[in-house]
Structure to design on (234 residues):
């Protein structure tokens, strides 16, 4: 359902040069498949998720999702595509502060043109253990509770693909497994593909497929090899 082909991303440097970040010849994820992506800080994990989600555009290459190449869509087309087919759990939640937990989840549906399925929104919040926090605003909730709202929101629009960027990093230890279970079980039940970035071996070990971005991304692979060489040469 997802296939990246010859994907490259570089950033313009202040001096006008190009700083390469991603070079992924080929990488794919099947419908309903669950994949963990791991790799050291700075190896391009967040950039990769942003490109798959259409938040960022690649410098070149194809991002095929259900046969659509989103790399050629303009920003508003990518926004619409994302709203309808992709759920995103941001590292920093990105909840709307003026709205309650329930409203935040329902807004995710409204952007996707799916109306306000209040029952589904409540049921998703109950599944992350927030049935008693429906009418609280983000500022009235703990950081872990906010992350759980953002997980419910990512699943609200019945996506085909969920991208989760370190979804347990800011959640208290006691609730981390709840977040992982919620993502995995809902994605499995609804045949949604899941790509989850994590630094936690306890989380990664639960997945059958764990991909190292330093294998997948040739820019990160090269950087790692250079570091190893430097260490060997003292
Ligand atoms: N807007 C930007 N402009 C220039 N460089 C950036 C920008 N965003 C990220 N980078 C650089 O891209 C690299 C990869 O970042 P990121 O994808 O956030 O890595 P990770 O999520 O694996 O820690 C880092 O070296 C970072 O400094
Ligand atoms: Mg990151």
């Amino acid at each position: 359902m997802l296939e990246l082909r010859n994907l490259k991303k570089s950033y313009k440097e202040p001096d006008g040069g190009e700083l390469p970040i991603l070079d992924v010849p080929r990488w794919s994820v099947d419908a309903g498949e669950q994949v963990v992506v791991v790799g050291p800080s700075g190896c391009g994990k967040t950039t990769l998720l942003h490109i798959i989600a259409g938040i960022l555009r690649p410098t070149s290459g194809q991002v095929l999702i259900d046969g659509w190449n989103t790399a050629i869509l303009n920003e508003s087309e990518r926004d619409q595509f994302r709203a309808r087919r992709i759920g995103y759990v941001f590292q920093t939640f990105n909840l709307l502060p003026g709205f309650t937990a329930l409203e935040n989840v329902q807004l995710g549906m409204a952007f996707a043109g799916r109306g306000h399925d209040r029952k589904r929104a409540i049921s998703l919040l109950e599944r992350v253990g927030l049935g008693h926090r429906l009418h609280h605003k983000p500022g009235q909730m703990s950081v872990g509770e906010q992350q759980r709202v953002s997980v419910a929101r990512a699943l609200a629009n019945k996506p085909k693909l969920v991208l989760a960027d370190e979804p347990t990093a800011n959640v208290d230890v006691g609730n981390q497994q709840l977040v992982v279970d919620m993502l995995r079980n809902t994605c499995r039940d609804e045949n949604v593909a899941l790509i989850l970035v994590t630094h936690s071996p306890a989380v990664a070990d639960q997945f059958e497929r764990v991909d190292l971005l330093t294998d997948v991304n040739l820019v990160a692979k090269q950087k790692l090899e250079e570091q190893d060489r430097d260490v060997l040469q003292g």
User: Anything to note?
Assistant: The two ends are 45 Å apart (CA to CA). Residues 11, 21, 39, 41-47 surround adenosine-5'-diphosphate (ligand 1) (CB under 6 Å). The first strand starts at residue 2 and ends at 12. Strands lie at 2-12, 18-29, 34-38, 60-65, 68-69, 86-89, 161-165, 193-197, 209-212.
